[in-house]
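A further point concerns the way the authors explain their paired sequence and structure data. Since the whole study asks how a given chain folds, the encoding of that fold should be made plain. A single example would do more here than another paragraph of explanation. An entry of this sort, consisting of the sequence and the corresponding backbone structure tokens, reads as follows:

_____
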Amino acid sequence: MADRLIIVESPAKANTIKKFLGGSTKVVASMGHVRDLPKSKMGIDIENDFELQYINIRGKANLINSLKKDAKAAKKIYLATDPDREGEAIAWHLAYLLGIDENEICRVTFNEITKETVKQSIKNPRKIDLNLTDAQQARRTLDRIVGYKISPLLWKKVRRGLSAGRVQSVAVKLIVDREEEIEKFIPEEYWNITAIVSDKETKTKFESRLIGKNNKKIELHSKDEVDVVKKELNNEEFIVKDVNIGEKKKNPTPPFITSTMQQEASRKLGFSIKKTMSVAQGLYEGVKIPDRGTTGLITYMRTDSTRISDEARKAAKEQIESIYGTEYYENRYFKTKSDAQDAHEAIRPSYIDIKPDDIKDSLTPEQYKLYKLIYNRFIASQMSSAIYDTISVDITAGEYNLRTTGQSLKFKGFMTLYVETSDEETESEDLGIASIPILKKKDVLNKEEINAKQSFTEPPPRYTEASLVKTLEEKGIGRPSTYAPTITTILARNYIEKDKKQLIPTELGKVVNKLLIENFGDIINVKFTANMEDEFDKVAVGKKEWKEVIREFYSPFENILEKVEKELEHVKLEEEVSDVPCEKCGRMMVIKMGRYGKFLACPGYPECKNAKPIIQIIDVPCPKCGSKVQIRKTKKKRNYYICENNPASCDYISWNKPKEGEEAKKDDSVIEEIEKDKK
């Protein structure tokens, strides 16, 4: 008989905690949720004030019986599921199954899985936080109602198997809206003028940029305008108006929160949001390390707070001063945004003395990369600012104003270890200070050349996973635990697809988005979704009752639903008629939308069930036999090029689009990929 039973969510976490406690303590895993709403029906009794009809999850009967047996044999039970709303809900469901009273002091949480934290947490258990479980129930209920009530309309009008979701549909809308912006974008011409000048003494040349005329910003949109300015500049004397020499500080970024970790791992490591969270979960739950055993390496990875503990702050100070010197340390506090839940610390290493390179052999390549990113970001957050020497030289040429700026790194500070990246990296136009000669006011400069460069404005960039998470966070849509599942869902539903890092709406995504926005615009929008997050937060801190939130939502939603159902009864989505006749019955085939995009289908269904893929033909003939070349896709949606006569009389196939006159080659790696798909 165990004196204590501790129930966590995963076996890895159980193994890590087990080694800290030993003795007669038993640590077991619930393997995530044990109870949930049924999949076969909505599971919400709307008529009975939204009572939730939970059931034990199918396939978990043996596990539940084992947990009950362990609970019966234990003198004391601790529910140690993850320290967030989802974890609190799992603890609540476990308490129900094991017959533990809601008011029992049985709940423990670990922000980091270290020996000290685990032992301290078990000494200070608490009741299950019913406000947190209610906030989770409110979100689950609202999302279930939206999904189960709207999705059937998509089945009728588009195709079966589609789904709508409060957060996922808003994410799709953002991506579709951005694509429309790009499609409607009209590039505008603009020009930049630079002058190459030199000082009269040393003859050192440097570049200066035209910024204005008569101290007002100047914009040039045509070659004619540029020619006028160039002609006037060539007739003017270039005189130094002002020289400003100074110093600029660059401060480190805060330690990671969930969203910033996801963004940086995407940009620096090329990780998907889903992969980042999976790898981080493993680092949090524990990794086997020589001489230490299974060790939790980072604090909890679902957080929106930049707060760090005094102990971690002290350990960082010792580390920085011992490795880099006292001048590299600066005690920093970062402001957490006003709507953050602040339940946990920022994401940081649990043990500062475990350096990434020291345990590289114990980690997978992905774990090593992410751990190093988290470790360096945290240490850098407590380091001194980088310091730059700066210079700005203002030059006049008649009525025109030009400027040269330069900077040189004087003290690296935190940049010794870490520099944040961004999605909108641009090349700096600053010159190094050494490139600019020593100048003083009223110096007359030699004019060497006047150059003009034509450019065109560019459309806004497509979202990447990183920039989408950033936008969702900025707009208050979702919370740390929802970003990864939201993106995973809309990719799985084929509403969007990834091209390299870019997120692009599919035709299916556009059709579904149009139908939802036209009919449920009050619900599928940024403002409503963000407001609902605020409502859930009020429930989480006990300021609002969860069923009150659902009641306020449901009444107007029901009215909208009734109205839309009536209107859509008479609406039929127009099917695009192709120029391809059905070889079975002669009707002209129509273009339909399927799980993997568009395909051709006979309009005579169900009498005629003929269907086939839409074949794209390129404008270059087969380099081997001169026939047409088709574009096809592998299961991973990678394009390949194949002769229409393959395999009958021509074996041409390639990943690369053929070019006229090139030697015909068969690429066996394409065939290998296709064979894998078949298996």
Observations:
- The CA atoms of residues 138 and 548 lie 9 Å apart.
- The radius of gyration is 31 Å.
